[in-house]
Amino acid sequence: MQSAANFPVIWNLSPLGSSSSKVQLVNLKQHRNKAHSLRCLRSKGNEEEFENSSQDKLGVSSVVKEDKHKDIWSLFREAQQNILYLNKQRLAAVEELEKLKNEKVELLERLNQLEAEIQIIIKKDKSSLLWELLLRIDSMVINGLIGTEEASSMRQLVREHEANISEFPLDVLQQGDDAQVLAELRRFPNKGKRNGLHVIHICTEMDPLVSVGPLASYITGLSCALQGKGYLVEVILPKYSTLDLDQVEGLREIEAVTYSYFDGQLHANRIWNGVVSGVGVTLIQPLYYGSMFSRDKVYGYPDDVDRFAYFSRASLDYIAKSGKQPDVLHIHNWQTAIVGPLFWDVFVNQGLEGTRILLTCQGFVSKCLVPPEKLELCGLDPASLHRADRLQDNTNPQVVNILKGGIVYSNKVVIMPSSPSEGSTLHRKSIPGLEPTLAVHKEKLCFAPFALDNSKWDPSIDVYLPENYSADDLRGKSTCKVELQRQLGLVEDASTTIVGCIFSEISDVDLESLKSLVRSTKKNDVQFVIMMMDEDQMMIIKELERTDEGGNLRVVKGSNEAVSHLIIAGSDIMLCINFFQDPLLQVPLKALKYGTAPIELNPQTMHVGGTHEQEATTTAKFYNSLFGRMSLGQALDLMKKDGRLWELKIMEAMEKDLCCDVHVSAYTSIKEPVKKKI
Question: Hey, which pathway is this one from (predicted)?
Answer without folding.
Answer: Glycan biosynthesis; starch biosynthesis
